[in-house]
Design brief:
By secondary structure, this protein is mainly α. Helices cover 48% and strands 7% of the residues. The N and C termini lie far apart (121 Å). The model has no long low-confidence stretch (mean pLDDT 76).
């Protein structure tokens, strides 16, 4: 059981810690807030204007949201653990009739071991001679 003296000491300490928090001065320095004054900063009222009922309502909503977030995380982790495996289609059964056609077409399409280029023209036959044009036609007149 708790001794009444210990309980009173504990309550006095808690009350002592909360008093400085209520009387703290807050400074606005540009877009940031600080407990220490800064050049060009201004003092801001930082008291909680809510009553006890509003504070209780806010804290219960925060607890409810945290509990809901934990439940949602657990459900997400459970769903991720039982994720469906990737679909891998089974190999196709090959038809023996198709294999016969493949071997015949592959034999026809087989290339020789070495390659020799062949020209359709005989070695003495060159390009056809160009027609001579007059200089006026070359200039575009």
């Amino acid at each position: 059981m708790f001794h009444p003296f210990r309980v009173l000491c504990l309550l006095a300490c808690v009350a002592g810690w909360s008093i400085p928090a209520a009387g703290q001065t807050v400074w606005r320095c540009g877009d940031t807030y600080s407990q220490k004054p800064c050049p060009g900063g201004r003092q801001v009222q930082a008291e909680d204007s809510r009553d006890a009922g509003q504070r209780a309502q806010t804290s219960s909503a925060a607890r409810r949201d945290a509990k809901l977030a934990d439940e949602m995380e657990k459900a997400r982790l459970k769903e991720e653990a039982k994720a469906a495996p990737a679909y891998i289609p089974p190999p196709k059964a090959e038809d023996p009739a198709d294999q016969g056609d493949r071997t015949r077409s592959m034999a026809v399409a087989k290339k020789p071991a070495h390659f020799t280029a062949v020209s359709p023209k005989k070695p003495g036959e060159g390009k056809a001679p160009k027609k001579k044009t007059s200089k006026a036609r070359q200039r575009g007149r």
